[in-house]
Amino acid sequence: xxxxxxxxxxxxxxxxxxxxxxxxxxxxxxxxxxxxxxxxxxxxxxxxxxxxxxxxxxxxxxxxxxxxxxxxxxxxxxxxxxxxxxxxxxxxxxxxxxxxxxxxxxxxxxxxxxxxxxxxxxxxxxxxxxxxxxxxxxxxxxxxxxxxxxxxxxxxxxxxxxxxxxxxxxxxxxxxxxxxxxxxxxxxxxxxxxxxxxxxxxxxxxxxxxxxxxxxxxxxxxxxxxxxxxxxxxxxxxxxxxxxxxxxxxxxxxxxxxxxxxxxxxxxxxxxxxxxxxxxxxxxxxxxxxxxxxxxxxxxxxxxxxxxxxxxxxxxxxxxxxxxxxxxxxxxxxxxxxxxxxxxxxxxxxxxxxxxxxxxxxxxxxxxxxxxxxxxxxxxxxxxxxxxxxxxxxxxxxxxxxxx
Length: 404
Description:
The chain is of the alpha/beta class and 404 residues long. The protein has helices spanning 2-12, 156-164, 166-172, 204-209, 228-246, 258-273, 295-303, 309-314, 319-324, 359-362, 388-402, and strands at residues 15-24, 32-38, 45-52, 56-63, 65-73, 88-90, 97-99, 104-105, 110-112, 142-146, 176-179, 188-193, 215-221, 251-256, 281-287, 335-340, 371-377. The strands form 3 sheets. Strands 10-11-13-12-14-15-16-17 form an 8-stranded mixed β-sheet, with helices on both faces. Strands 2, 3, 5, 6 and 7 form a 5-stranded antiparallel β-sheet that branches. Strands 1, 4, 8 and 9 form a 4-stranded mixed β-sheet that branches. The protein starts with a helix and ends with a helix.
């Protein structure tokens, strides 16, 4: 296992991060799309694209290489570049950027004038999926993909792959936000975020109990080895595209274990973005989340021959955990907490726990400040997701936002 993780992390270091900001000449609430591409004039090939609700920051994770970056304002909101209609600009007037392995290139800022002087040199539409460079795997491939809760991709084997082979997981399984039916503007999305070594199928019992007449489940799926900030950035990217595409007015978030930490970091990013999305987050409910970290993660950091990057973040007193609760929740949003105390393991902990996380970590006082509901269950860390009363309570909490 550790050898596979080590090899996979070496592959990750063959990539680079390209990031920057996009500004417009005048304030705008129109979507902005950022494109990263390769190839010489007349032979451009798209590598990936980033969807923004308005001016702000973007990023790409790409294999080491040479790239160009372009951006346009999507006037017709159709995710298609229309020359002469959509204002556009090229980074550095179209000059290439070299991205060495393991490098982070920030400050790749683009300003789009009202009247374009730099048209994008190739056709782009996110609808047809064509024109990508060979070997490209856009990060948005599985955002809004409709599937079933028993999709074979949602398996324990793939969850383990997400921990021990995160790069392979992204390539072969597919990270993103999956739907169980096409988007319905009359129903409120509920974003479910699984925990470490988890997958969307973990939510099967809770999804089965969900009032599907008023709510639609959205299932986040991600490799759990990656740094939590990295996962949060990816989740924010996926959700920003869905917001731009569907303009949903309300969103509920339900998260389990480590997924609760990612959910809170995601909310923090949405608040900081100031693009209107924060006001739509109406429910935040976490289940068995280690707000004060996990001693098991610290043990793994101290003793493992190869460390999964996420273990650093969920170890007690990590910089990630210390800063997580510093951002205030939006005034319209409270926090509901379900915790578990069954499955007590005295081999791992001397204090009450659910077999994976201590009760004290789940009930960290700083995390309880905005809590409206705090309810305990005599269940293990994972069996709580199959508890009928827990599912009923989640429905009751969702009921409070359904009539808003």
